[in-house]
Automatic annotation (TrEMBL):
InterPro entries in UniProt: DUF6230
Protein name: Cholesterol esterase
Pfam families recorded: DUF6230 (PF19741)
Organism placement in taxonomy: Bacteria, Bacillati, Actinomycetota, Actinomycetes, Micromonosporales
Length: 208
């Protein structure tokens, strides 16, 4: 397997901190932020401005692409993100939490949990996640780093803007997922064993 410059890349690559892979995708989006601000880059929908903590014991992605992008709040505030596109995802012990300050009450956190180890895992197709950060122990199979973001195909129909840094792999296996996300989209999302709770615990799915 070779990268976009013709250099040899091993078929299976392991990173202790997957955040090191996310960084190149996000530092390349300064031009995109300017394009969003002046209307040259269209915004298909607005994000809330809040972030969600997402954790999972394991995420297995069959067909994975990643590229830098920008999302925008309704008031015009832009946020650079790393977009991760996955054709088919399987998640074990998924937790998602969003904390909202409520006047007179304090921080209230909504928890969604699914895919417990003793039951069926969470399944998603055509998954797209726009994230601020991601940590975990990752193994990639047949990874291509440095591809043009507009030519990415492994993660399905999602791709980035021409000229921007992109990367893709046939498979990504990530253990101990800890993620800060601004958006999540999916063609289908099967939350087996779904549990929704509200708590005054502002820590969320993980500390930090």
């Amino acid at each position: 397997m070779k990268d976009s410059q013709g250099n040899l890349v091993l078929g299976r690559t392991r990173w202790r901190r997957f955040a090191a892979v996310v960084i190149p995708a996000t530092i390349a989006v300064s031009g995109l932020m300017a394009g969003v601000a002046n209307g040259a880059v269209p915004v298909t929908f607005h994000v809330s401005g809040q972030t969600a903590k997402i954790s999972a014991d394991r995420l297995v992605a069959d067909g994975f692409s990643q590229y830098g992008s920008v999302v925008q709040e309704k008031n015009g505030t832009p946020h650079p993100v790393a977009m991760s596109a996955i054709k088919d995802a399987t998640l074990t012990n998924l937790c998602q939490s969003v904390t909202t300050p409520i006047p007179g009450l304090g921080n209230v956190t909504l928890f969604i949990r699914a895919g417990r180890e003793d039951g069926a895992p969470v399944k998603a197709k055509d998954l797209l996640i726009g994230m601020d950060s991601l940590e975990g122990d990752a193994v990639f199979t047949n990874i291509n780093i440095g591809a043009d973001a507009s030519e990415l195909t492994a993660g399905g129909a999602y791709h980035g803007q021409a000229g921007l840094f992109g990367q893709e792999a046939d498979k990504a296996d990530i253990a101990g997922v800890k993620q800060i996300a601004r958006l999540t989209q999916a063609g289908t999302f099967a939350l087996n064993g779904l549990s929704l709770t509200v708590s005054m615990d502002s820590t969320g799915c993980f500390a930090g």
